[in-house]
Design brief:
Blueprint lengths: L12 E10 L2 E9 L12 E7 L6 E8 L6 E3 L5 E5 L2 E10 L4 E8 L7 E2 L16 E4 L5 E5 L5 E5 L6 E7 L4 H4 L10 E10 L2 E8 L9 E7 L7 E7 L10 E5 L2 E8 L11 E7 L20
């Protein structure tokens, strides 16, 4: 049987993988690290989409959304996530607001591969730097949740239109019981990059985090809850840190198998600002817990 090879995308630098299944196809949305850096920092202006039916052969749909499409933003096209509802596709993206802080934009499309059109204003804009890395989930009762945040984990309820917020921003208590002891600003291991989903009645929050002490690179960890808004209980390390400074989880079930998407700096010329998306297959334990997943060379085709 054919086997994929990590990194998945080799023609450009990609990061922050966000998988979404629609029909018999897995769509993967990514950020894009530009070859040439500005001010020796993350230089990111657009989002890409790729798709597969077998986890081996990938179709490149190219750029599907860009800062050029968002009139009120000027920088930092960071980690997105896409979801389908009522025949539309909604791409949630953190961006830097002109003369402001970070905010969350929404692009809407009729097809998973776009093109996406901005709704014309921020969905979440608290005027600070916490509003990054949105992760979206629609529960069985139809209520949609949008979690986000660095250094704090926060969430809002979305209306059914998926482009407006119900109520105000809610803050999750940043406790060691919820996210373990760590070296990030809240004193927990939670750093950023939340990925929220539900499986067999258990809610999961996967995130990029920092261990106690001086550990320069992010690892991936997870917490679980019996309800969509917590309380969260720390589950353990999902993927050990390194070699890249950052990492970002994307978890999905596809055709009977479970996958963790992540990123490294493996491609030639790779660095903390030039990353590359990878994928590993894993299995859940009977109680829903997940053992630490090893980085790998690729996955078997399906």
């Amino acid at each position: 049987m054919a086997k994929s090879k990590n990194p998945i995308i080799t023609n450009i630098y990609t990061a922050d993988p966000a998988p979404m299944v629609s029909g018999d196809t897995l769509y993967l949305y990514t950020t894009h690290d530009e070859d040439k850096l500005i001010n020796d920092f993350y230089t990111m202006v657009d989002w890409y989409c790729f798709s597969t039916k077998d986890m081996v052969n990938w179709t490149d749909h190219g750029k599907v959304f860009s800062l050029d499409d968002i009139s009120w933003a000027d920088d930092r096209a960071w980690a997105p996530q896409c979801i389908e509802r009522n025949g539309k596709f909604y791409l949630y993206c953190p961006v830097h607001k002109k003369d402001g802080g970070m905010a969350i934009a929404v692009g809407v499309a009729d097809r998973p591969e776009g093109p996406f059109k901005d709704i014309g204003k921020p969905l979440v804009d608290e005027g600070d730097w916490n509003d990054i890395d949105p992760t979206v989930f629609i529960d069985d009762d139809g209520q949609a949740y949008l979690y986000f945040g660095n250094p704090e984990l926060r969430y809002v309820l979305l209306n059914e239109d998926m482009i407006s917020v119900k109520g105000s921003v809610n803050k999750i208590p940043m406790t060691e019981e919820a996210f373990s002891k760590g070296s990030h600003y809240t004193g927990t291991s939670y750093g950023e990059g939340p990925w929220f989903y539900k499986r067999n009645g258990l809610y999961y929050m996967v995130f990029a985090g920092f261990e106690p002490g001086e550990h320069p690179n992010e690892h991936l960890a997870y917490s679980t809850s019996k309800g969509p808004t917590g309380p969260w209980k720390y589950g353990g390390v999902l993927m050990k840190s390194g070699p890249c400074f950052t990492n970002h989880p994307g978890v999905v079930d596809f055709k009977g198998k479970s996958y963790l998407f992540y990123h490294t700096d493996q491609l030639p010329g790779g660095s903390l600002f030039h990353r590359s998306v990878c994928v590993a297959e894993f299995k859940y334990n009977e109680d829903g817990s997940i053992d630490t997943i090893e980085k790998c060379d690729g996955v078997e085709g399906i």
